[in-house]
Amino acid sequence: MTQDMDKEGRFQARRAVEVLAPAALQSPLIFASPHSGRDYPGELLRNSRLDRHSLRQSEDSYVDLLFDEAPHFGAPLLRALFPRAYVDVNRSRDEIDPRMFADDVPKTADSRSSRVIAGLGVIPRIVADGQDIYGRKLYYLDARGRLAACYDPYHRTLRELIDQARARFGCAILIDCHSMPSAGGAPFRAGEPRIDFVLGDRFGSSCAPSIIRFVEDVLTGMGYQTARNAPYAGGYVASSYGRPRNGVHALQIEINRSLYLDERRIARTDGFEPLRRNMISLMERLTAFDADDLRLPQAAE
Predict the structure, then answer these.
(1) φ and ψ at residue 3, rounded to 5 degrees
(2) Rounded to whole angstroms, how far apart are CA atoms 233 and 254?
(3) What is the radius of gyration, based on Cα positions, of the chain?
(4) How far apart are alpha carbons 166 and 293 in whole angstroms?
(5) I need a surface site. Which of 40, 48, 156, 207 has the fewest CB within 10 A?
(6) How far is it, in rounded angstroms, from Cα 219 to Cα 211?
(7) How far is CA 221 from CA 24, 125, 218, 285, in A?
(8) Residue 269 CB: number of other CB atoms within 10 A?
(9) What's the whole-model pTM score?
(10) Which helix (H) or strand (E) is 144 found in, with range?
């Protein structure tokens, strides 16, 4: 739960995460959208030097709506309701930038992380286009409150969903859903086609090869251009949860925003519904994926 003040100065509780759950769990699949939250706390809007539209540049806008039919196929969708510019759950909890704070940060802070140095730690310093979010330093006490209210509930819920899938099916398959700026899908070399989807499995370490190959085949069969691990190999969620030997598989999917979004206006285009229909088809195909080889031996007996 995040907190915000009402007109009388009282703190109001706000939900941090939402799970769209199926009536009955029928698949080891879990879909997650960590960066599509659109509930901007007043605290952020008051303290930021940027307006809401500028802050929204960091969103994976409307990605949750592309996958919100997951429960129809017996799989849950976990989505963060808070914005990425407020807390980024695809980071380690320790990826804290001490330059942002007027007081001391914990000694465990990973200030040398490349993402922290770039301004994109768990409490981001900049938005996606490089603008500073704040005009003054924050206090770590406030950051700690954000982590407790947003980061912890998201990861606690994600762990619960993974544990449920493993207990029921002997494995869990996490599909971590993101979008990328159209510039990120530009051809690497002149004459090459635009990349529509980047599939990230941490270079083969976060999920079984059969999963990424299956998704790749489905998407290319739909006419999309795909790439593996470049320029996005998977973030903190894929690297920390993807443990194939323990029956947990994590695949990050990055969708080129030009397929469905007017990036300047942050508005859905006519391409949104056709893409959504294709993502529904992808989810349907995935629920038919043969996961027998992924199950832990003790669970399969």
Answers:
(1) -130, 145
(2) 10
(3) 19
(4) 14
(5) 156
(6) 12
(7) 30, 40, 5, 12
(8) 15
(9) 0.93
(10) helix 140-146
Crossing angle of helices 209-221 and 272-287, in 10° steps, is: 140
The helix (H) or strand (E) run that includes residue 175 is strand 172-180
Whole-angstrom CA distances from 170 to 22, 85, 166, 248 are 19, 36, 4, 9
Exposed e or buried b per residue across 137-163, where buried means at least 16 C-beta atoms within 10 angstroms of its C-beta: ebebeebeebeebbbebbbebbeebbe
Given the structure tokens 């320790």, which residue do they identify? Answer: 94
> Three-class SS of residue 79?
strand
Parallel/antiparallel/unpaired status of strands 267-268 and 261-262: antiparallel
